[in-house]
Design goal:
By secondary structure, the protein is of the alpha+beta class. It has a single domain, classed as Gcn5-related N-acetyltransferase (GNAT) (Aminopeptidase). The chain has four helices and ten strands; from the N terminus they run E-H-H-E-E-E-H-E-H-E-E-E-E-E. The longest helix has 15 residues.
Length: 182
């Protein structure tokens, strides 16, 4: 029953050894090593989450995770603070039960608590867009610039979605993440 699940957010750097092991086990269940080796995104440079939302079911099992970070970037050359969501994963045996939605809601609440985050941004496979739309995210049809190595490049690997936090979610324009995607 997801209503008695524990949803927490905290710095990834402060995880206990046990929490690190649980996260690795979840990652391997979602992305088995043989599958992960063929993932085209593995060749990209990605930012690491600063904060992690952990969703633990009533038995104490880590069933879902949402990576969270904030970044100073620009929207149409104007400075903005962007709340990033990345690395969302739910154990295959726990999908469709609402665990990821609990984690996503907590991540969005955290952005609001930070007082200064302008909007949220995530990237996802096209097949997941309707899922995120149901959680209040909108499709961004502009240009997303990221850093790969020492170069600024347009991000075209996945679709970009945004969410209103301190200002309306942009749906067009040019967002520069001033760093790698997440």
């Amino acid at each position: 029953m997801i209503t008695s699940s524990v949803v927490s957010i905290g710095p990834v750097s402060l995880w206990t050894d046990e929490q690190v092991v649980e996260y690795r086990e979840l990652t391997e269940a979602v992305y088995p090593p043989r599958t992960a080796a063929d993932w085209p995104g593995r060749k990209l440079e990605w930012s690491q989450a600063e904060m992690g939302v952990r969703v633990v079911d009533p038995s104490g099992w880590l069933v879902s995770y949402v990576g969270v970070l904030t970044r100073e970037g620009t929207l149409d050359t104007a400075p903005v603070t962007i709340g990033g969501i990345g690395g969302v994963k739910t154990h295959p045996d726990a999908r469709g039960l609402g665990y990821a939605a609990l984690g996503m809601r907590r991540a969005t609440e955290w952005f609001h608590e930070q007082h200064g985050v302008d909007f949220g941004l995530l990237v996802c496979e096209p097949g997941l867009m309707s899922y995120y739309e149901n959680l209040g995210w909108v499709v961004f049809n502009g240009v997303l610039l990221t850093t790969q190595g020492a170069a600024t490049v347009e991000f075209t690997f996945n679709r970009v979605m945004t969410q209103t936090i301190g200002r309306p979610a942009p749906v067009t324009g040019i967002i520069d993440l001033s760093g790698p995607p997440w």
